[in-house]
Structure formats: structure tokens, C-alpha cells
Design a protein that fits this description.
By secondary structure, this protein is α/β, with parallel strands linked by helices. The chain is built from 12 helices and 14 strands. Strands 3-2-1-4-5-6 form a 6-stranded mixed sheet, with helices on both faces. Strands 7, 8, 9, 10, 13 and 14 form a 6-stranded mixed sheet that branches.
């Protein structure tokens, strides 16, 4: 059985095509993703889904499609309910095979989704949690992607998150709205220390976390997949120029050495932000093992966990590094296969 698992995010749409044998065991995984800013380009979703599959295999070879989503939150939709229903309709209109939608209380058919749309809102972490449960029965899986960080406790192989929506997970510490690429630096940095002075920073969207990790050499040009704040290029010099503006400066005022120091400080503060969320969940649930995944698994998650003296395993013990980036899509395909064969 070949299942296409999609994780439809606000900024990225991820695909994992998973082949299963007759016993339901995985025999092959192929992945791809595309930057699709749903707040401006939501009408391109259908074509994006089909093109992603076409990049890997023929559409006719797909036996079923699984869907998880977080894109319902983008401001192109008046409500999350509207977003879920519109995204699900786009999926239904483009595929004639069986569909399975991942929800916080189980997997839903398209007809059941229409009755309970909010059940599938921002439920992609449900898909990832069952992969983490295969690695360790008791752990916290931490998935730092381009935009957000999920911090989900797993006990006896099953997720046990206290929050069942993004809003509630913001309250429980299970969602930290910070990521490897798209995070505005001013959302987690108040001031920068440089040459004995403490500088308060501007609150404009001058630079993002992608610029920081570009300058520090922690991401590749291919991994810098989102738009730049100023619409310019993604060279290291252009990233430095954007970061200099955070201090209301420019490259005539700040040297490359200055900007490297600034980026290191910003990096430490984002690690600390994630550490605080992990620490809250770790102490509450009495769990001391972190399973790291997502684009930021090595850059941010592993460092944050190590700073707390927690044990760390990478999800790449189960998946490849490339597969870890789209782990929710893989988990979506697995849950879809279980649902359709139950």
C-alpha cells in the first residue's frame, strides 16, 4: 500500500510517500516539501499537493492520502473552522482515493471532519508523537520546525499532552512559538550586549532566525526556504545587513565580527527560550529523555535539552535527517494506514 502523507502548514507543505507491506511495515519512504505561504497563496494549495506527488511518483500509484494541518491559523481565513473546511475541501476536490485526516481525538474521514472541523486544527503533533513512542516509551519529543516548537510528553508509548489545541498548549508549555527560520528576532530578544553596552532592539521585522543561522553557518542555502523580510537575497552579507538593522545600524557601523557576536547572543537566547518550555514539561511530567526532531533538532533542540542536563536522542535513529524535517508527514501516512486498515 502506498500512502501520501501531507502536513499542510502555514508556510510549508510537506509530503511523505510511504510504502507499506501486507503486514503494515514500512518498506520505503520518499519525501519532499515546498514553501507555500498560505496567507497569500492559499489558492495554490491544490496544485502544490499534486506537484509534490508528481515530483516523486505517478498520482495513479497512490492508494490513499493522509492529511494533517496547521495552515488553518493563517489570517487568510476569518476563523480556524473556515480554514480547516476550505483546506479539507481542496484536498477532497483533488484526490479520488480514500482520505484520512489526523485529529487530536483520532483519525477522521472527510464526512466526519465536516461535522467536527476543529478536531483536526493544528493536530500534526499527534502524528509525530507516535513515531517518538516507537523510539522511547517515556520521553518528551521536541519538534522545532521553521516556525514553532512542539514539546509533547509521551508515556507508555502514547502522547499525554495536557493541551489539546494550540491555544491551550501555549498555556501548558507544550507549544513555544519559535522556530529555526521564520521567527522575528524581536519576539525573543529584548536587548543585545556588545562592547560593554546593552542595546535595546527595534521591534520591526528586520531579520529572522534564518538570518542568524545563515550567518553562523548552521543552515544551508536550501534550508533557508522561506522569504526574506526585505525581499532581498539570502547571502551571508545580506543576512548580516538585515541583522544590523535590528540594532538600527548597518554594515558601515557594525563589522562582520560584531555581527557574529550578535548572532551568537541571539542564538543563545533562542536556545534558552526552548529550554524553558522543555524544563516546564520535564518537571511536570517527570520525564528526563528528549527525542529531538525537525529542522532545528541539532541546532536548537539538542542544545536546549543538554543545557538542562537531560538525556537526548535524535529521531534520526529511526528516520534520516531529511525525513526528520517532515516527520509529521511521515506520521500522518502511518496513522492513515492504520486507520484505513482497521
Amino acid at each position: 500500500m502506498r500512502i501520501a502523507g501531507f502536513d499542510i502548514g502555514g508556510a510549508n507543505t510537506d509530503l511523505a510517500i510511504v510504502d507499506f507491506d501486507k503486514k503494515g511495515e514500512i518498506i520505503n519512504i520518499a519525501t519532499d516539501f515546498k514553501y507555500l505561504p498560505m496567507w497569500t497563496n492559499k489558492n495554490d494549495l491544490g496544485d502544490t499537493l499534486l506537484n509534490l506527488i508528481d515530483n516523486i511518483t505517478n498520482l495513479d500509484s497512490i492508494d490513499a492520502v493522509g492529511i494533517s494541518m496547521t495552515a488553518e491559523l493563517v489570517d487568510a481565513y476569518k476563523t480556524k473552522k473556515e480554514g480547516v473546511l476550505e483546506i479539507a475541501k481542496e484536498v477532497n476536490d483533488n484526490f479520488s482515493v480514500p482520505l484520512a485526516f489526523i485529529g487530536v481525538n483520532g483519525v477522521l474521514s472527510y464526512e466526519n471532519l465536516k461535522k467536527n472541523p476543529l478536531d483536526v486544527a493544528a493536530a500534526n503533533w499527534i502524528a509525530t508523537s507516535q513515531i517518538a513512542g516507537k523510539i522511547a516509551k517515556d520521553c518528551i519529543f521536541v519538534d522545532t520546525g521553521s516556525t514553532t516548537t512542539d514539546i509533547i510528553p509521551v508515556k507508555n508509548g502514547h502522547e499525554c499532552a495536557k493541551g489539546r489545541s494550540d491555544m491551550m498548549r501555549l498555556a501548558t508549555g507544550e507549544l513555544v512559538y519559535t522556530g529555526t527560520l521564520r521567527t522575528n528576532i524581536s519576539t525573543f530578544v529584548d536587548e543585545i550586549s556588545l562592547d560593554g553596552n546593552n542595546y535595546k532592539i527595534s521591534s520591526e521585522l528586520f531579520a529572522t532566525s534564518a538570518d542568524v543561522y545563515n550567518v553562523l553557518g548552521k543552515i544551508t542555502m536550501d534550508e533557508y526556504s522561506c522569504d526574506t523580510p526585505d525581499g532581498c537575497g539570502k547571502s551571508i552579507e545580506e543576512s548580516r545587513r538585515r541583522i544590523s538593522r535590528v540594532l538600527c545600524a548597518d554594515l558601515d557601523i557594525l563589522s562582520s565580527q560584531d555581527l557574529n557576536k550578535i548572532c551568537q547572543e541571539i542564538y543563545k537566547k533562542q536556545v534558552q527560550q526552548i529550554s524553558e518550555g522543555i524544563n516546564l514539561v520535564s518537571k511536570r511530567e517527570n520525564l528526563d529523555l528528549v527525542i529531538a526532531t525537525g529542522l532545528g533538532k541539532d541546532i536548537l533542540v539538542s542544545v536546549a535539552a543538554q543545557n538542562l542536563n537531560l538525556k537526548v536522542k535524535s529521531m534520526n535513529e529511526f528516520l534520516s535527517d531529511e525525513e526528520c524535517v517532515v516527520a509529521p508527514a511521515i506520521g500522518t501516512a502511518i496513522l492513515a494506514q492504520n486507520y484505513l486498515n482497521s
